[in-house]
Amino acid sequence: MTRAVLLENGLLVDGTGSPGQLGDLLLVGDRIAALGAGLRHRLPDGLALADVQVSDCTGLVIAPGFIDVHTHDDAIVLNAPGMFPKLSQGITTVVTGNCGLSVAPFVVEEPQGALTLLGNSFKYPSVDAYAQAVAEAQPAVNVAPLIGHTTLRFACMDDLTQPATAGEVAAMCSLLEKCMGQGAIGLSSGLFYAEAMPAPASEVTALARVVARYGGIYATHMRSEMADILEAMHEAGDCAFQAGVPLVISHHKCAGPANWGRTQETLPLIETFAQRQAVAMDVYPYVAGSTVLREDLVDGVIDVLVSWSTPHPEMMGRTLASIAAEWGVDQKTVCRRLQPGGACYFQMHEDDVRRVIAHPLSMIGSDGLPHDRHPHPRLWGAFPRVLARYWREQRLFPLETAIYKMTGLSARNFRLHQRGQLQLGWHADVVVFDPSKVRDVATYEQPVARSEGISSVYVNGQLACDQGCAQALAHAGRMLKRPVPTA
Ligand code: ZN
Ligand code: CU
To answer: Among the CATH numbers 2.60.120.10, 2.60.40.1180, 2.30.40.10, 3.30.56.70, which is that of 4-64+425-466?
Structure first.
Protein backbone atom coordinates (compact mmCIF):
# COMPACT_ATOMS: atom_id res chain seq x y z
CA MET A 1 0.00 0.00 0.00
CA THR A 2 1.25 3.49 -0.78
CA ARG A 3 2.54 5.36 2.24
CA ALA A 4 0.61 8.54 3.07
CA VAL A 5 1.30 11.21 5.67
CA LEU A 6 -0.98 14.11 6.59
CA LEU A 7 0.66 17.06 8.34
CA GLU A 8 -2.23 19.02 9.86
CA ASN A 9 -2.80 22.57 11.09
CA GLY A 10 0.69 23.95 10.60
CA LEU A 11 1.90 27.20 9.10
CA LEU A 12 2.69 26.26 5.51
CA VAL A 13 5.65 28.30 4.31
CA ASP A 14 6.06 27.19 0.72
CA GLY A 15 9.64 28.23 -0.05
CA THR A 16 8.77 30.89 -2.65
CA GLY A 17 9.04 33.74 -0.16
CA SER A 18 5.30 34.36 -0.17
CA PRO A 19 3.42 34.64 3.15
CA GLY A 20 2.75 31.47 5.12
CA GLN A 21 -0.78 30.09 5.42
CA LEU A 22 -2.32 27.86 8.03
CA GLY A 23 -3.20 24.50 6.59
CA ASP A 24 -2.33 20.88 5.90
CA LEU A 25 0.11 19.06 3.68
CA LEU A 26 -0.51 15.58 2.30
CA LEU A 27 2.40 13.39 1.21
CA VAL A 28 1.60 10.28 -0.81
CA GLY A 29 4.49 8.06 -1.79
CA ASP A 30 7.43 10.33 -2.56
CA ARG A 31 5.34 13.30 -3.73
CA ILE A 32 3.34 16.20 -2.37
CA ALA A 33 -0.24 15.15 -3.08
CA ALA A 34 -2.24 18.08 -1.68
CA LEU A 35 -1.94 21.37 0.21
CA GLY A 36 -4.67 23.40 1.83
CA ALA A 37 -7.18 23.51 4.68
CA GLY A 38 -9.23 20.58 5.96
CA LEU A 39 -7.52 17.97 3.80
CA ARG A 40 -8.73 15.08 5.97
CA HIS A 41 -12.25 15.73 4.64
CA ARG A 42 -11.21 15.68 1.00
CA LEU A 43 -8.61 12.98 0.60
CA PRO A 44 -7.84 11.79 -2.93
CA ASP A 45 -9.96 8.93 -4.28
CA GLY A 46 -8.96 5.56 -2.92
CA LEU A 47 -7.26 6.95 0.18
CA ALA A 48 -9.08 6.44 3.52
CA LEU A 49 -8.18 8.42 6.64
CA ALA A 50 -7.46 5.11 8.41
CA ASP A 51 -4.63 4.51 5.94
CA VAL A 52 -3.04 7.89 6.53
CA GLN A 53 -0.50 8.63 9.22
CA VAL A 54 -1.72 11.92 10.71
CA SER A 55 0.60 14.31 12.49
CA ASP A 56 -0.68 17.37 14.37
CA CYS A 57 1.47 20.39 13.51
CA THR A 58 -0.38 23.01 15.54
CA GLY A 59 2.03 25.85 16.35
CA LEU A 60 4.65 24.45 13.98
CA VAL A 61 5.99 25.55 10.61
CA ILE A 62 5.80 23.15 7.65
CA ALA A 63 8.43 24.07 5.04
CA PRO A 64 10.32 22.47 2.17
CA GLY A 65 13.33 20.50 3.44
CA PHE A 66 16.36 22.77 3.67
CA ILE A 67 18.96 22.59 0.90
CA ASP A 68 22.56 22.96 2.04
CA VAL A 69 24.10 24.41 -1.12
CA HIS A 70 27.64 24.50 0.20
CA THR A 71 28.97 21.25 1.59
CA HIS A 72 32.03 19.06 1.62
CA ASP A 73 29.90 16.00 2.32
CA ASP A 74 31.05 13.98 -0.71
CA ALA A 75 32.59 11.20 1.39
CA ILE A 76 30.58 11.49 4.59
CA VAL A 77 27.32 10.64 2.82
CA LEU A 78 28.98 7.29 2.09
CA ASN A 79 30.84 6.75 5.37
CA ALA A 80 28.22 8.02 7.84
CA PRO A 81 25.00 7.85 5.82
CA GLY A 82 22.80 8.74 8.82
CA MET A 83 23.93 12.33 8.12
CA PHE A 84 22.98 13.58 11.60
CA PRO A 85 24.80 16.91 11.35
CA LYS A 86 22.53 17.81 8.45
CA LEU A 87 19.29 15.95 9.11
CA SER A 88 19.14 17.39 12.64
CA GLN A 89 19.09 20.89 11.11
CA GLY A 90 16.18 20.04 8.81
CA ILE A 91 18.41 19.65 5.75
CA THR A 92 17.16 17.17 3.14
CA THR A 93 19.60 17.84 0.27
CA VAL A 94 23.34 18.54 0.24
CA VAL A 95 25.23 19.99 -2.72
CA THR A 96 28.66 18.34 -2.70
CA GLY A 97 31.92 19.07 -4.50
CA ASN A 98 32.30 22.73 -3.51
CA CYS A 99 35.46 24.85 -3.49
CA GLY A 100 37.01 22.93 -6.40
CA LEU A 101 37.10 19.71 -4.37
CA SER A 102 35.04 16.65 -5.30
CA VAL A 103 35.74 12.95 -4.76
CA ALA A 104 34.74 12.16 -8.36
CA PRO A 105 36.23 11.81 -10.89
CA PHE A 106 39.40 10.71 -9.12
CA VAL A 107 41.14 7.65 -7.71
CA VAL A 108 43.79 8.22 -5.02
CA GLU A 109 45.00 6.39 -1.91
CA GLU A 110 46.19 9.40 0.06
CA PRO A 111 44.71 12.76 -0.95
CA GLN A 112 47.08 15.72 -0.79
CA GLY A 113 46.73 19.44 -0.11
CA ALA A 114 43.24 20.93 -0.16
CA LEU A 115 41.77 17.53 -1.06
CA THR A 116 42.40 16.45 2.55
CA LEU A 117 39.23 18.44 3.38
CA LEU A 118 37.29 15.52 1.89
CA GLY A 119 38.78 12.73 4.02
CA ASN A 120 40.66 9.61 2.99
CA SER A 121 41.08 7.63 -0.22
CA PHE A 122 38.74 8.26 -3.13
CA LYS A 123 37.98 5.61 -5.68
CA TYR A 124 35.38 7.11 -7.98
CA PRO A 125 36.72 7.50 -11.50
CA SER A 126 33.34 8.73 -12.78
CA VAL A 127 30.07 10.26 -11.61
CA ASP A 128 28.46 6.92 -12.38
CA ALA A 129 30.85 5.20 -9.96
CA TYR A 130 30.07 7.80 -7.30
CA ALA A 131 26.32 7.49 -7.94
CA GLN A 132 26.65 3.73 -7.52
CA ALA A 133 28.40 4.23 -4.18
CA VAL A 134 25.66 6.65 -3.05
CA ALA A 135 22.99 4.14 -4.04
CA GLU A 136 24.76 1.42 -2.04
CA ALA A 137 25.36 3.60 1.03
CA GLN A 138 21.75 4.87 1.04
CA PRO A 139 22.29 8.20 2.79
CA ALA A 140 19.45 9.83 4.70
CA VAL A 141 19.64 13.00 2.55
CA ASN A 142 19.73 13.70 -1.18
CA VAL A 143 23.08 14.37 -2.84
CA ALA A 144 23.61 16.80 -5.74
CA PRO A 145 27.21 16.66 -6.98
CA LEU A 146 29.36 19.45 -8.39
CA ILE A 147 32.66 18.54 -10.07
CA GLY A 148 35.74 20.25 -8.64
CA HIS A 149 38.26 22.03 -10.86
CA THR A 150 41.05 21.11 -8.42
CA THR A 151 40.02 17.46 -8.62
CA LEU A 152 40.14 17.65 -12.43
CA ARG A 153 43.64 19.12 -12.15
CA PHE A 154 44.76 16.25 -9.90
CA ALA A 155 43.24 13.77 -12.33
CA CYS A 156 44.69 15.25 -15.54
CA MET A 157 47.90 17.14 -14.69
CA ASP A 158 51.43 16.26 -13.66
CA ASP A 159 52.55 19.61 -12.25
CA LEU A 160 49.90 21.50 -10.29
CA THR A 161 52.18 24.49 -9.75
CA GLN A 162 51.67 25.43 -13.41
CA PRO A 163 48.77 26.50 -15.62
CA ALA A 164 47.34 23.53 -17.50
CA THR A 165 48.83 23.01 -20.98
CA ALA A 166 46.49 23.01 -23.97
CA GLY A 167 46.51 19.22 -23.89
CA GLU A 168 45.70 19.15 -20.19
CA VAL A 169 42.85 21.63 -20.62
CA ALA A 170 41.46 19.38 -23.34
CA ALA A 171 41.79 16.33 -21.07
CA MET A 172 40.00 18.11 -18.20
CA CYS A 173 37.24 19.29 -20.54
CA SER A 174 36.62 15.80 -21.85
CA LEU A 175 36.59 14.33 -18.34
CA LEU A 176 34.18 17.05 -17.20
CA GLU A 177 32.05 16.40 -20.27
CA LYS A 178 31.68 12.76 -19.19
CA CYS A 179 30.75 13.85 -15.67
CA MET A 180 28.11 16.27 -16.92
CA GLY A 181 26.79 13.57 -19.24
CA GLN A 182 26.38 11.36 -16.17
CA GLY A 183 24.31 13.97 -14.32
CA ALA A 184 26.69 16.23 -12.36
CA ILE A 185 24.99 19.57 -11.65
CA GLY A 186 27.96 21.78 -12.48
CA LEU A 187 31.53 22.86 -11.84
CA SER A 188 33.16 24.36 -8.76
CA SER A 189 36.53 26.03 -8.36
CA GLY A 190 38.76 26.85 -5.41
CA LEU A 191 41.25 29.27 -6.92
CA PHE A 192 42.23 30.29 -3.39
CA TYR A 193 43.90 26.90 -2.87
CA ALA A 194 47.51 26.23 -3.88
CA GLU A 195 46.65 23.42 -6.30
CA ALA A 196 44.34 25.70 -8.32
CA MET A 197 45.92 29.14 -7.80
CA PRO A 198 48.25 28.76 -10.83
CA ALA A 199 45.25 28.29 -13.13
CA PRO A 200 44.55 31.36 -15.24
CA ALA A 201 40.97 32.49 -15.78
CA SER A 202 41.07 31.03 -19.31
CA GLU A 203 41.55 27.51 -17.90
CA VAL A 204 38.40 27.79 -15.80
CA THR A 205 36.44 29.48 -18.58
CA ALA A 206 37.16 26.54 -20.90
CA LEU A 207 35.68 24.19 -18.30
CA ALA A 208 32.73 26.49 -17.62
CA ARG A 209 31.87 26.38 -21.33
CA VAL A 210 31.46 22.60 -21.08
CA VAL A 211 29.10 23.07 -18.14
CA ALA A 212 27.11 25.68 -20.08
CA ARG A 213 26.40 23.17 -22.84
CA TYR A 214 24.76 20.87 -20.29
CA GLY A 215 22.74 23.52 -18.48
CA GLY A 216 24.83 23.27 -15.31
CA ILE A 217 26.09 25.97 -12.97
CA TYR A 218 29.49 27.31 -11.84
CA ALA A 219 30.28 27.90 -8.15
CA THR A 220 33.55 29.46 -7.07
CA HIS A 221 35.63 29.96 -3.97
CA MET A 222 37.30 33.00 -5.46
CA ARG A 223 41.03 33.61 -5.74
CA SER A 224 40.83 36.20 -2.96
CA GLU A 225 38.40 37.19 -0.23
CA MET A 226 40.84 39.71 1.20
CA ALA A 227 42.61 42.75 -0.32
CA ASP A 228 42.11 41.61 -3.93
CA ILE A 229 38.48 40.60 -3.59
CA LEU A 230 37.11 42.97 -6.23
CA GLU A 231 39.62 41.72 -8.83
CA ALA A 232 38.73 38.14 -7.89
CA MET A 233 35.05 38.92 -8.22
CA HIS A 234 35.52 40.43 -11.67
CA GLU A 235 37.44 37.32 -12.69
CA ALA A 236 34.60 35.08 -11.51
CA GLY A 237 31.93 37.25 -13.11
CA ASP A 238 33.72 37.49 -16.47
CA CYS A 239 34.52 33.79 -16.56
CA ALA A 240 30.88 32.79 -16.02
CA PHE A 241 29.61 35.50 -18.37
CA GLN A 242 31.92 34.49 -21.20
CA ALA A 243 31.03 30.84 -20.75
CA GLY A 244 27.32 31.60 -20.52
CA VAL A 245 26.83 29.80 -17.22
CA PRO A 246 25.04 30.90 -14.01
CA LEU A 247 27.50 31.95 -11.28
CA VAL A 248 27.42 31.20 -7.56
CA ILE A 249 29.96 33.00 -5.39
CA SER A 250 30.78 30.64 -2.55
CA HIS A 251 30.65 31.62 1.14
CA HIS A 252 30.81 35.31 0.37
CA LYS A 253 32.86 37.21 2.92
CA CYS A 254 35.34 40.06 3.29
CA ALA A 255 38.11 38.49 5.32
CA GLY A 256 40.70 40.15 7.51
CA PRO A 257 40.31 43.32 9.61
CA ALA A 258 41.71 45.46 6.76
CA ASN A 259 38.73 44.40 4.62
CA TRP A 260 35.95 44.73 7.16
CA GLY A 261 33.11 46.84 5.81
CA ARG A 262 33.93 46.09 2.19
CA THR A 263 30.69 44.19 1.54
CA GLN A 264 29.54 47.75 0.83
CA GLU A 265 31.71 47.47 -2.31
CA THR A 266 31.27 43.79 -3.16
CA LEU A 267 27.47 43.58 -2.92
CA PRO A 268 26.91 46.51 -5.31
CA LEU A 269 29.37 44.86 -7.73
CA ILE A 270 27.38 41.63 -7.59
CA GLU A 271 24.25 43.68 -8.31
CA THR A 272 25.85 45.09 -11.44
CA PHE A 273 26.72 41.54 -12.54
CA ALA A 274 23.09 40.60 -11.99
CA GLN A 275 22.08 43.03 -14.73
CA ARG A 276 23.97 41.02 -17.36
CA GLN A 277 24.08 37.43 -16.03
CA ALA A 278 22.58 34.95 -13.58
CA VAL A 279 24.46 35.36 -10.30
CA ALA A 280 23.95 34.34 -6.67
CA MET A 281 26.01 33.70 -3.55
CA ASP A 282 25.98 31.46 -0.53
CA VAL A 283 26.78 32.42 3.06
CA TYR A 284 27.04 30.86 6.51
CA PRO A 285 25.93 32.77 9.62
CA TYR A 286 29.21 33.07 11.56
CA VAL A 287 32.11 35.52 11.78
CA ALA A 288 34.70 32.73 11.68
CA GLY A 289 35.72 30.87 8.54
CA SER A 290 37.31 27.43 8.55
CA THR A 291 39.74 25.61 6.33
CA VAL A 292 43.13 23.91 6.42
CA LEU A 293 45.90 25.51 8.50
CA ARG A 294 47.74 28.00 6.35
CA GLU A 295 50.31 30.54 7.37
CA ASP A 296 49.03 33.33 5.11
CA LEU A 297 45.77 33.43 7.09
CA VAL A 298 47.58 33.83 10.42
CA ASP A 299 48.19 37.53 11.07
CA GLY A 300 48.70 37.56 14.84
CA VAL A 301 45.60 39.79 15.15
CA ILE A 302 42.58 37.55 14.61
CA ASP A 303 41.86 34.51 16.80
CA VAL A 304 42.62 31.14 15.21
CA LEU A 305 41.13 27.99 16.74
CA VAL A 306 42.67 24.62 15.87
CA SER A 307 40.12 22.14 14.49
CA TRP A 308 42.56 19.28 13.82
CA SER A 309 46.28 18.62 13.62
CA THR A 310 48.01 15.43 12.57
CA PRO A 311 51.30 16.02 14.47
CA HIS A 312 49.61 17.61 17.52
CA PRO A 313 46.10 16.24 17.99
CA GLU A 314 46.25 17.36 21.64
CA MET A 315 46.04 21.00 20.48
CA MET A 316 42.58 20.54 18.99
CA GLY A 317 40.16 23.17 20.33
CA ARG A 318 42.95 25.56 21.42
CA THR A 319 43.90 28.93 19.92
CA LEU A 320 47.19 29.55 18.16
CA ALA A 321 47.82 32.41 20.60
CA SER A 322 47.63 30.17 23.64
CA ILE A 323 49.85 27.52 22.05
CA ALA A 324 52.31 30.23 20.99
CA ALA A 325 52.50 31.48 24.57
CA GLU A 326 53.08 27.95 25.86
CA TRP A 327 55.76 27.13 23.30
CA GLY A 328 57.41 30.56 23.38
CA VAL A 329 57.23 31.02 19.60
CA ASP A 330 55.12 33.18 17.26
CA GLN A 331 51.77 32.09 15.83
CA LYS A 332 53.07 31.47 12.31
CA THR A 333 55.61 29.03 13.74
CA VAL A 334 52.85 27.26 15.65
CA CYS A 335 50.82 27.10 12.43
CA ARG A 336 53.73 25.47 10.60
CA ARG A 337 54.35 22.93 13.36
CA LEU A 338 50.68 21.88 13.50
CA GLN A 339 50.40 21.15 9.77
CA PRO A 340 48.73 19.27 8.29
CA GLY A 341 45.74 20.53 10.18
CA GLY A 342 42.67 22.72 10.10
CA ALA A 343 41.41 25.80 11.93
CA CYS A 344 38.63 28.31 12.46
CA TYR A 345 39.70 31.86 11.60
CA PHE A 346 37.76 34.73 13.20
CA GLN A 347 38.24 36.81 10.11
CA MET A 348 34.87 38.51 9.48
CA HIS A 349 32.91 41.43 10.89
CA GLU A 350 29.36 40.87 12.07
CA ASP A 351 28.06 43.83 10.04
CA ASP A 352 29.38 42.23 6.83
CA VAL A 353 27.86 38.87 7.72
CA ARG A 354 24.51 40.54 8.33
CA ARG A 355 24.67 42.47 5.08
CA VAL A 356 25.39 39.35 3.04
CA ILE A 357 22.74 37.23 4.78
CA ALA A 358 20.12 39.96 4.26
CA HIS A 359 20.97 40.43 0.58
CA PRO A 360 18.26 39.22 -1.84
CA LEU A 361 20.79 37.19 -3.89
CA SER A 362 22.17 35.16 -0.97
CA MET A 363 21.32 31.58 -0.01
CA ILE A 364 22.37 29.66 3.08
CA GLY A 365 25.12 27.06 2.82
CA SER A 366 26.87 25.59 5.84
CA ASP A 367 30.37 24.95 4.41
CA GLY A 368 30.65 22.44 7.27
CA LEU A 369 33.74 20.23 7.37
CA PRO A 370 32.50 16.82 8.49
CA HIS A 371 35.94 15.20 8.87
CA ASP A 372 37.29 17.72 11.41
CA ARG A 373 37.52 16.29 14.93
CA HIS A 374 36.68 19.68 16.49
CA PRO A 375 34.70 21.19 13.60
CA HIS A 376 33.49 24.73 13.08
CA PRO A 377 29.97 24.86 14.65
CA ARG A 378 28.45 25.64 11.24
CA LEU A 379 28.58 21.91 10.48
CA TRP A 380 25.82 21.23 13.03
CA GLY A 381 24.20 24.64 13.44
CA ALA A 382 24.15 26.87 10.36
CA PHE A 383 20.49 26.63 9.35
CA PRO A 384 18.82 26.82 12.79
CA ARG A 385 21.21 29.70 13.61
CA VAL A 386 19.85 31.74 10.70
CA LEU A 387 16.33 31.13 11.99
CA ALA A 388 17.10 31.78 15.66
CA ARG A 389 19.58 34.61 15.47
CA TYR A 390 18.84 36.46 12.23
CA TRP A 391 15.09 35.93 11.98
CA ARG A 392 13.69 35.49 15.50
CA GLU A 393 16.12 37.62 17.48
CA GLN A 394 17.29 40.26 15.03
CA ARG A 395 14.33 40.31 12.60
CA LEU A 396 16.71 40.80 9.69
CA PHE A 397 13.97 39.50 7.40
CA PRO A 398 10.55 37.80 7.60
CA LEU A 399 10.42 34.05 8.29
CA GLU A 400 9.31 33.44 4.70
CA THR A 401 12.47 35.10 3.39
CA ALA A 402 14.70 33.08 5.72
CA ILE A 403 13.10 29.89 4.42
CA TYR A 404 13.27 31.05 0.80
CA LYS A 405 17.04 31.44 1.26
CA MET A 406 17.24 27.81 2.41
CA THR A 407 14.89 26.25 -0.13
CA GLY A 408 13.25 27.86 -3.17
CA LEU A 409 16.08 30.21 -4.09
CA SER A 410 18.64 27.45 -3.56
CA ALA A 411 16.82 24.94 -5.76
CA ARG A 412 16.36 27.52 -8.49
CA ASN A 413 20.00 28.61 -8.49
CA PHE A 414 21.31 25.04 -8.48
CA ARG A 415 18.61 23.89 -10.88
CA LEU A 416 17.31 21.12 -8.63
CA HIS A 417 14.20 19.86 -10.36
CA GLN A 418 10.90 20.04 -8.44
CA ARG A 419 12.50 20.58 -5.03
CA GLY A 420 12.73 23.53 -2.69
CA GLN A 421 9.02 24.42 -2.72
CA LEU A 422 5.81 22.97 -1.40
CA GLN A 423 4.08 22.45 -4.75
CA LEU A 424 1.54 19.91 -5.86
CA GLY A 425 3.29 16.93 -7.43
CA TRP A 426 6.78 17.98 -6.35
CA HIS A 427 9.17 15.76 -4.37
CA ALA A 428 8.13 15.36 -0.73
CA ASP A 429 11.18 16.80 1.06
CA VAL A 430 9.71 18.52 4.12
CA VAL A 431 10.80 19.89 7.49
CA VAL A 432 8.49 20.61 10.42
CA PHE A 433 9.88 22.89 13.13
CA ASP A 434 8.85 24.99 16.12
CA PRO A 435 9.45 28.65 15.22
CA SER A 436 9.53 29.69 18.88
CA LYS A 437 12.16 27.10 19.85
CA VAL A 438 14.33 26.38 16.82
CA ARG A 439 17.96 27.23 17.59
CA ASP A 440 21.52 26.10 17.05
CA VAL A 441 23.25 24.51 20.02
CA ALA A 442 26.72 23.90 18.54
CA THR A 443 29.38 26.39 19.67
CA TYR A 444 33.09 26.86 19.01
CA GLU A 445 33.76 25.17 22.37
CA GLN A 446 31.21 22.34 21.95
CA PRO A 447 30.77 22.09 18.20
CA VAL A 448 29.14 18.67 18.00
CA ALA A 449 25.57 19.24 19.15
CA ARG A 450 22.15 18.73 17.64
CA SER A 451 20.04 21.80 17.12
CA GLU A 452 16.76 22.23 18.96
CA GLY A 453 13.26 22.74 17.66
CA ILE A 454 13.36 20.58 14.52
CA SER A 455 10.30 18.36 14.99
CA SER A 456 10.43 16.07 11.99
CA VAL A 457 12.09 15.72 8.63
CA TYR A 458 10.74 13.90 5.57
CA VAL A 459 13.00 12.94 2.69
CA ASN A 460 11.28 11.75 -0.50
CA GLY A 461 8.10 11.23 1.53
CA GLN A 462 9.69 9.09 4.24
CA LEU A 463 10.14 10.09 7.87
CA ALA A 464 13.91 10.54 8.17
CA CYS A 465 13.94 11.68 11.78
CA ASP A 466 11.71 13.10 14.49
CA GLN A 467 11.81 14.38 18.06
CA GLY A 468 15.24 15.92 18.02
CA CYS A 469 16.70 13.48 15.55
CA ALA A 470 18.07 11.06 18.12
CA GLN A 471 18.14 8.36 15.47
CA ALA A 472 17.89 8.30 11.72
CA LEU A 473 14.78 6.46 10.64
CA ALA A 474 14.39 6.07 6.87
CA HIS A 475 17.48 6.43 4.69
CA ALA A 476 15.60 7.71 1.66
CA GLY A 477 18.10 10.08 0.07
CA ARG A 478 18.87 9.91 -3.64
CA MET A 479 21.50 11.17 -5.99
CA LEU A 480 19.94 14.18 -7.73
CA LYS A 481 21.23 14.01 -11.26
CA ARG A 482 20.73 16.94 -13.54
CA PRO A 483 18.60 15.70 -16.40
CA VAL A 484 20.82 15.31 -19.49
CA PRO A 485 19.40 17.45 -22.32
CA THR A 486 18.43 15.51 -25.40
CA ALA A 487 20.01 17.42 -28.25
ZN1 ZN B 1 35.65 27.39 0.11
CU1 CU C 1 33.78 25.22 1.01
So the answer is: 2.30.40.10
